[in-house]
């Protein structure tokens, strides 16, 4: 019986051969590269001891939608294409999923696109409902995504804009000049993900203390937590418990 | 004032007269009131009885006039969004209910709707479950507006209304306790339906409440609406028009008090709101008085909705039929509080090993949610409450972001306060109805 990799098998079930697709030597990798749920007892796998843990789930790539999208989505795309000459350069991908339209925008173009989305009479996305970040660690090279949810109060429509930046150069233009409401929400995205919005009037931390180090919502930032004693037993903090994925 | 060679003075019958023969007029004027030009910076909060929670305001004052106002938030940040990523999807309800602690049912419903949309089971939610959600949300809206009335009254010096508002809110919390087992932080609305059915005595209690409430509302109006101090403190105070609201992303009663009838229950209906009859109250003025009027009117509209929802309650399941999602927990009140019913325990422990395995897997591991992202928004008492949920296909949320109306609305405070009096900062801030638990999450 040979060790599957050079790394010592630290706590998981010893395996005679490397499971298909596995690289860590643990019974199974985390399906998505998420550090959530690294287990107790030094277990790096799923904690599944049934033997089926060697199965690796493949992450489905996000599919580009094809015309017609259905609903008002085609109208929105046509209107944006007409009003914004650099459409083909700025829009990387159009995704329709679960009845929602997502335009993946090149980060340096995001402010221009927002400007057109707000001002064009056929689009009229007056309200920027939400700005938030998502960290797709391991799934995307430009792992930090900024997600804008625009609402047209005139036409009662919603559109999601998504811009992806890398950790090494997490810069994209601020949309505060177009949507003043994005001010605090961009500050939150900076605070939690370290995304830098160029042109923001005062990009400082908002929820975490000013002298905090790191950006807590990134996937490689640990949850922390301390063990709790309950009826004589020590309960691990949630990020150290053995868990399913 | 120092004597100078360009302004001499003489006494006349009408008082002292200055003769100015040149020089700088400003030096003369400022010489009479050295306080006038001086700006002081006042730090208000985060522990202050009238900032509506742990909100900190930094005010630059000139006399009693506010020249600049900045708000500082984050004192109640508890990392709920990060914590959610380490629990399974069902456990999420228990966390999100603690965000905006005055509107827990809304937090839960928005979360449940988002998870259901990710699962693609939105159409499978039973009619009874949806009706119960509407019923609970509208009761919650009333209780939230009552707390607004109570705390705003207190902050503006009307202590009686504070007691009355909290008293009636307690009645609603009693109803919640009958239905969910808890006064607050219910974790009642869950992905797939609601945790348990509405008991019959709760319906009786709600009917009693609906009978009692109109009288109470009249009492509040008798107490406040005609009262000169209340009108002085609220009319033409902290005005924000529709343009300002939309630019700053302000939704909810504040936007409606400026005259725009934007209500997600009408504009982008969810939970079958399009089948209910109710109006969206608005007010033309966009001041604190308008917000007071709109919220009182909304309590009345919510009572209409509660009544309609009660009439629609037909017997039926309150959870989706899919046993891969619905918890098998038949809950009942036992000697040690709420827990699995004795019949259910007897079944899984004595009769069916498969049931036990299934129960165990579903509770410890949870269900898997297909990868993707959704945004679901509902009309909370404070405005648009949006949930941006991302799944990677696992049993835990990959990312959940709450678009909290308290957080977004607080950005309007400088626009309302600057140029006004310091006392109006309190009125303006209170009229936004920020809940810091929701704002900071």
Automatic annotation (TrEMBL), chain A:
Q: Which Pfam families match?
A: Complex1_30kDa (PF00329)
The record's catalysed reaction(s) read:
a quinone + NADH + 5 H(+)(in) = a quinol + NAD(+) + 4 H(+)(out)
**Region annotation Disordered: where it falls in the sequence:** 1-44
* One MF annotation (Gene Ontology) recorded for this entry: NADH dehydrogenase (ubiquinone) activity
**Which UniProt key words apply to this protein?**
Cell membrane, Membrane, NAD, Quinone, Translocase, Transport
Give the record's membrane topology: Peripheral membrane protein
| NADH:ubiquinone oxidoreductase 30kDa subunit domain location | 103-225
List locations, semicolon-separated. Cell membrane
Primary localization: membrane
Superkingdom of origin organism:
Bacteria
Family per record: Belongs to the complex I 30 kDa subunit family.
Protein name from the UniProt record? NADH-quinone oxidoreductase subunit C
Supply the gene name: nuoC
Task: Fetch the InterPro entries from UniProt.
Answer: NADH_DH_suC, NADH_quin_OxRdtase_su_C/D-like, NADH_UbQ_OxRdtase_30kDa_su
Keyword Membrane recorded: yes
Entry GO CC: plasma membrane
The role this protein plays is: NDH-1 shuttles electrons from NADH, via FMN and iron-sulfur (Fe-S) centers, to quinones in the respiratory chain. The immediate electron acceptor for the enzyme in this species is believed to be a menaquinone. Couples the redox reaction to proton translocation (for every two electrons transferred, four hydrogen ions are translocated across the cytoplasmic membrane), and thus conserves the redox energy in a proton gradient.
EC number(s) per UniProt? 7.1.1.-
Q: NCBIfam families in the record, alphabetically? A: NuoC_fam (TIGR01961), PRK07785.1 (NF005856)
Subunit structure, as described in the record: NDH-1 is composed of 14 different subunits. Subunits NuoB, C, D, E, F, and G constitute the peripheral sector of the complex.
TrEMBL record, chain B:
Q: List UniProt keywords, sorted A-Z.
A: Cell membrane, Membrane, NAD, Quinone, Translocase, Transmembrane, Transmembrane helix, Transport
Q: Which domain of life is it from?
A: Bacteria
Q: Which family does it belong to?
A: Belongs to the complex I 49 kDa subunit family.
What is this protein called in UniProt?
A: NADH-quinone oxidoreductase subunit D
Compartment(s) where it occurs, according to its Swiss-Prot or TrEMBL record: Cell membrane
Residue stretches spanning the membrane: 146-166
NCBIfam families for this protein:
NuoD, PRK06075.1
The membrane-topology field of this record reads: Peripheral membrane protein
Q: What taxonomic classification does the UniProt entry list for its organism?
A: Bacteria, Bacillati, Actinomycetota, Actinomycetes, Micromonosporales
Reactions catalysed: a quinone + NADH + 5 H(+)(in) = a quinol + NAD(+) + 4 H(+)(out)
Q: Which Gene3D superfamilies match?
A: Cytochrome-c3 Hydrogenase, chain B
Function recorded in the entry: NDH-1 shuttles electrons from NADH, via FMN and iron-sulfur (Fe-S) centers, to quinones in the respiratory chain. The immediate electron acceptor for the enzyme in this species is believed to be a menaquinone. Couples the redox reaction to proton translocation (for every two electrons transferred, four hydrogen ions are translocated across the cytoplasmic membrane), and thus conserves the redox energy in a proton gradient.
Q: Which GO terms describe its molecular function?
A: NAD binding; NADH dehydrogenase (quinone) (non-electrogenic) activity; quinone binding
| A GO CC term attached to the entry | plasma membrane
Q: Which Pfam families match?
A: Complex1_49kDa
* Oligomeric form and interacting partners: NDH-1 is composed of 14 different subunits. Subunits NuoB, C, D, E, F, and G constitute the peripheral sector of the complex.
Q: What is its EC number?
A: 7.1.1.-
Enzyme superclass (EC): translocase
């Amino acid at each position: 019986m040979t060790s599957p990799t050079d790394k010592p098998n630290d706590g998981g079930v010893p395996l005679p051969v490397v499971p298909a697709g596995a690289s860590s030597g643990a019974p199974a990798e985390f399906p998505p590269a998420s550090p959530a749920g690294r287990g107790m007892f030094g277990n790096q796998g799923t904690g599944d001891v049934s033997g089926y843990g060697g199965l690796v789930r493949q992450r489905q790539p996000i599919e580009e939608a094809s015309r017609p999208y259905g609903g008002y989505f085609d109208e929105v795309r046509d209107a944006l294409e007409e009003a914004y000459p650099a459409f083909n350069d700025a829009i990387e991908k159009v995704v329709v999923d679960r009845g929602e339209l997502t335009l993946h925008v090149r980060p340096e173009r995001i402010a221009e696109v927002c400007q057109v989305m707000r001002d064009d009479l056929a689009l009229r996305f007056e309200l920027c409902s939400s700005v938030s970040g998502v960290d797709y660690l391991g799934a995307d090279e430009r792992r930090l995504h900024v997600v804008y949810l625009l609402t047209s109060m005139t036409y009662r429509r919603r559109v999601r804009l998504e811009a992806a930046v890398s950790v090494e150069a997490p810069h994209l233009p601020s949309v505060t000049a177009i949507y003043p409401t994005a001010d605090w929400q961009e500050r939150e995205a900076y605070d939690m993900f370290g995304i830098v919005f160029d042109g923001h009037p005062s990009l400082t931390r908002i929820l975490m203390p000013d002298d905090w180090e790191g950006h807590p919502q990134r996937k490689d930032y640990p949850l922390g937590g301390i063990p709790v004693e309950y009826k004589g037993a020590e309960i691990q903090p949630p990020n150290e418990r053995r868990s399913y994925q | 004032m120092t004597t100078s060679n360009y302004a001499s003075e003489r006494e006349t019958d009408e008082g002292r007269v200055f003769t100015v023969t040149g020089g700088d007029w400003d030096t003369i004027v400022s010489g009479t009131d050295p306080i006038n030009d001086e700006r002081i910076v006042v730090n208000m909060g985060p522990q202050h009885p009238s900032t509506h929670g742990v909100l900190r305001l930094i005010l630059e004052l000139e006399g009693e006039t506010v020249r600049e106002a900045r708000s500082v938030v984050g004192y109640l940040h508890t990392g709920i969004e990060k914590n959610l990523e380490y629990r399974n999807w069902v456990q999420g309800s228990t966390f999100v209910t603690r965000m905006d602690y005055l509107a827990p049912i809304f937090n839960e419903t928005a979360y449940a709707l988002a998870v259901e949309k990710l699962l693609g089971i939105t159409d499978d939610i039973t009619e009874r479950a949806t009706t119960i959600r509407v019923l609970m949300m509208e009761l919650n809206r009333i209780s939230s507006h009552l707390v607004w009335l109570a705390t705003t009254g207190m902050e503006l010096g009307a202590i009686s209304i504070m007691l009355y508002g909290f008293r009636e809110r307690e009645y609603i919390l009693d109803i919640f306790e009958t239905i969910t087992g808890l006064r607050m932080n219910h974790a009642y609305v869950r992905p797939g339906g609601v945790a348990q059915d509405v008991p019959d005595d709760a319906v009786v209690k709600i009917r009693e409440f609906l009978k009692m409430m109109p009288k109470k509302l009249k009492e509040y109006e008798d107490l406040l609406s005609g009262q000169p101090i209340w009108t002085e403190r609220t009319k033409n105070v902290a005005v924000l028009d529709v343009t300002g609201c939309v630019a700053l992303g302000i939704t909810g009663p504040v936007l409606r008090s400026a005259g725009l009838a934007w209500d997600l229950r009408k504009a982008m209906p969810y939970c079958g709101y399009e089948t209910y009859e109710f109006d969206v109250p608005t007010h033309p003025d966009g001041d604190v008085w308008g917000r007071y009027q709109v919220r009182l009117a909304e309590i009345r509209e919510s009572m209409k909705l509660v009544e309609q929802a009660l009439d629609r309650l037909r017997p039926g399941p309150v959870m989706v039929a899919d046993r891969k999602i619905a918890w098998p927990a038949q809950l009942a009140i036992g000697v040690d509080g709420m827990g699995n019913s004795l019949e259910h325990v007897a079944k899984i422990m004595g009769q069916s090993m498969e049931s036990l395995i299934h129960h165990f897997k579903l509770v410890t591991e949870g269900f898997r949610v297909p990868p993707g992202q959704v945004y679901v928004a509902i009309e909370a008492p404070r405005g648009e409450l949006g949930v941006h949920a991302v799944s990677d296909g696992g049993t835990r949320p990959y990312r959940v972001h709450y678009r909290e109306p308290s957080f977004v609305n607080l950005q309007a405070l400088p626009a309302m306060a600057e140029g006004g009096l310091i006392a109006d900062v309190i009125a303006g801030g209170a009229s936004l109805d920020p809940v810091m638990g929701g704002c900071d999450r």
